[in-house]
Amino acid sequence: MAKKVRRNPEAEEEAKFEFPEFDDAGFVKKELEMTAALSLASAFAVLLGLLSWWVTNSGLPWWIPILIGFAGIIASPFAIRRLRAKSDLYTKGDWAGLLALEFFGWFALWFVLVNLF
C-alpha cells in the first residue's frame, strides 16, 4: 500500500498567489490606442471593399480584386505602424485581430456590393 505524503503547511503558505497591482493608466492608454488601430483597420477594409467592387464592375478578371484585397491586407500593418506612433504596444493577438477584422470586413463588403449592384 502506498504511503501518504506529509504536507508541509509552511510550503502551502508560501505558494499563495497575489494579484499584481492593476495599472489603470496603462490599460486606458492601450485601449485607446487599440480603438484608433481598429478604426484604421476598418477604414482600410471599407476602402479595399469599394476598390474591389469597382474593379469587379469594370470587367477585369475575377482574380484581380482578390489580389488587390490580399495586397491591401498585407500592406495594412505597415501603414498602421507608420500612422500610429505607439503601435509597439500591440501584441501578436492584437495584430491578428486587426488583420481578421480587415479581411472579413473587406470580403463581406465586396460580396454585398457585388450582389447588390
Write the layout of secondary structure elements.
Elements: H1 9-14, H2 24-57, H3 63-83, H4 92-116
Report what the structure shows.
By secondary structure, the chain is an all-alpha fold. The chain has a domain at 40-116. It is 74% helix and 0% strand. It contains four helices and no strands. It has helices at 9-14, 24-57, 63-83, 92-116. Helix 2 (24-57) runs antiparallel to helix 3 (63-83) and helix 3 (63-83) packs antiparallel against helix 4. The longest helix has 34 residues, at 24-57. The radius of gyration is 24 Å and the shape is elongated. The relative contact order is 0.16. The mean pLDDT is 91.
Question: Which overall shape is indicated by the principal axes computed on the Cα atoms?
Answer: elongated
Number of strand elements: 0
Strand content: under 5%
Largest sheet: none
What's the order of the H and E elements?
A: HHHH
Tell me the radius of gyration. Answer: 24 Å
Summarize the structure.
By secondary structure, the chain is mainly α. Helix content is 74%, strand content 0%.
Which descriptors would you attach to this protein?
single chain, 117 residues, mainly alpha, 4 helices
